[in-house]
Amino acid sequence: DLQICQHRTPTCCTKKMEESYQAAVRRERTQSIQALNFELKYMIVGHITAFQEAFESLLRFAENRTSSLFETAYRPVAKEAAEPVKELFTDLSLYILGAETTVESAVLRFFDSLFPLVYSRLINPGITDLSEDYTECLRLTRQDINPFGRYSKNLVTELSKSLWASRMLSQALSLGIEVINTTEHAALTKECSRALVKMQYCPHCQGLTLIRPCVGYCLNVMRGCLASVSELDAQWREYISTLEYLTNEMAASHDLEIALSEIRNSINEAILHAQLNGPQLSATVDKVCGQPKQRGENLLSDNIVPVKEAAETQTFVMAHASLNTKRREFISYMKRSRTFYASIAERLCDGDLVMRDSSTCWNGEDVV
Fold first, then answer.
1. Which pLDDT tens digit goes with each residue over 38-78?
2. Which of 30, 53, 303, 305 has the highest local Cβ count within 10 Å?
3. What pTM did the predictor assign?
4. What gap in Å lies between CA 285 and CA 141, rounded to an integer?
């Protein structure tokens, strides 16, 4: 009553053993594909972690620099500006990790929150009444009167260019893990598991436990079994090319490190621009939001504090040169895995599964 290992001579197998063999080949195939995938998956997971740690480190550094700008140059607003600064960098971090947000909305929300503080503490430091309604009016007015000039838009443009590639790379790496996990658990067809039993275990039914499959026979069976997986070859090659493009974009002129380190300078220029145009801004705001209560003379001139340009940018870029090294290492490894899915049958037939240096092997029917 054998279904797979039918043979003319007597056999020591039963139908139940054939069923056990089918379960065994399914388990073994999953394990062997997992073993092949392990190094590739380990590499991608390791770099997801490394890139995310590097992004977070860069963001923290840039956030600290931005906070120190307010503490050293704009002390009247430092305490209240801490929350908007924190929100800005949280939003940028979420954007890189793939959240449904945009760089533009994060940056403009920050400047919306900043304008009431700059207006009431730096441009008109005599204001005592800063009600919720008045603050909201200032936030809305910011969008119309553009107190920060071109600097807010410039910051959006620069960050969008540099963070886009980081966001895409982060998403692409996660997609790679998804693809690998899916192929690991691809179900074997009934025909495939029968072919694998015939190749690996039918010789045992004849007492030939040391004979292994012939190389060509193994390749034919494996290619048939993994036809759906090897069809990924073209898309996998394209995926590797996309990763290469994204890592090159990250290291190109819109460099992430430099863009983040420049946030502080852009915000400083934006605040200086607003202060220098204080009288015109006040006239417009008074028309739109009304005149708030004053506490005496305007102290505008005392509040424009020139910021000493910290010689941190060069150190910052050098300290994160390791990010460039990680990119290069990663893409070099991934390029070597271009043929991963095209050669999966060959790799599974390599090693202990087949008989390489022997004059005899199993061809599915007999020892040859």
1. 988 998 888 888 888 888 888 888 999 999 999 999 999 99
2. 303
3. 0.75
4. 7
